[in-house]
Design goal:
Blueprint: E1 4-9, E2 20-24, E3 33-40, E4 43-50, E5 60-65, E6 78-83, E7 93-99, E8 117-123, E9 128-133, E10 138-141, E11 144-145, E12 159-165, E13 173-186, H1 191-194, H2 198-227
Antiparallel strand pairs: 1-13, 2-5, 3-4, 4-13, 5-12, 6-9, 6-13, 7-8, 7-12, 8-10, 10-11
GO molecular function, one term: unfolded protein binding
Protein name: Complex I intermediate-associated protein 30
Organism: Moelleriella libera RCEF 2490
Length: 231
């Protein structure tokens, strides 16, 4: 059976560029740039240029949602990113980011402060769905994993983001990720699975009934033969 989908962006919740804001490495003196361009209600494009020379091999370019979403996704299994075709994807590594806490107060100059994010990396190899189950999301701070972080609170997702980064010098240059949607998903069990195998059990009961009926018929035939002096 197909997965049950809750669209967060795209699908039945049209893309809206005003719901997203930019956070690039320029806040740290870098030169990377990113944009989220809404082509139409069902097509958004996360694109820009990742520069790794200014910061000596590091760099990032990202877009994230504005404000706090407070999404309750605890009944879902993860996030599915639907990459648009038919054109070939750029083959680069991206990260979908989540936050489950409120952002810290901005600096005196208006810049955002760094805070813990949950990142799930994926490669845009071809058009299609990329499923990111919750265990794929790793707690990170400034791109480095924080294994001592508390578990992700999927009942209160406050921010969703898209990030292109160098992954410590592995990639740079122009990038473009064309998207249909970002959605939460969960497996929708088949009716037979929900009954815990009742169909199989019912089939066994039917078979047992047929056997018992056959035995009863044979016993009756034996008694008739006995009464008639045939046995």
């Amino acid at each position: 059976m197909p997965d049950q989908i809750l669209y967060l962006f795209g699908g039945d919740r049209p893309w809206n560029s005003t719901a997203w804001v930019t956070t690039d490495d320029r806040v740290r003196g870098g030169s990377s740039q990113s944009y989220l361009t809404v082509v139409n209600a069902q097509h958004a494009r996360f694109h820009g240029h990742l520069d790794t020379t200014t910061l000596g091999g590091a760099g990032f370019a990202s877009q994230h949602t504005m404000g706090e979403l407070h999404l309750d996704l605890k009944d879902y299994e993860g996030i599915v990113v639907s990459i648009k075709g038919p054109e070939k994807a750029d083959g680069k590594d991206y990260a979908l980011t989540l936050k489950d806490t409120s952002p810290p107060p901005r600096r005196d100059d208006g810049r955002e402060k760094s805070s813990l994010s949950w990142e799930a990396e994926f490669r845009a190899e071809k058009p299609g769905d990329v499923k990111l189950t919750w265990d794929k999301f790793k707690p990170t701070y400034r791109g480095r994993e924080k294994p001592d972080a508390k578990p992700l609170n999927t009942a209160d997702i406050r921010q969703v983001g898209l990030m292109m980064r160098s992954f410590f010098g592995k990639q740079d240059g122009d990038f473009a990720l064309n998207l249909f949607s970002i959605a939460a998903f969960k497996h929708e069990p088949h009716a037979q699975e929900e009954r815990g195998g009742d169909d199989d059990e019912g089939e066994d009961l039917v078979k047992a009934g047929v056997v018992e009926q056959r035995r009863t018929t044979e016993r009756r035939a034996w008694w008739r033969a006995l009464c008639c002096g045939l046995v």
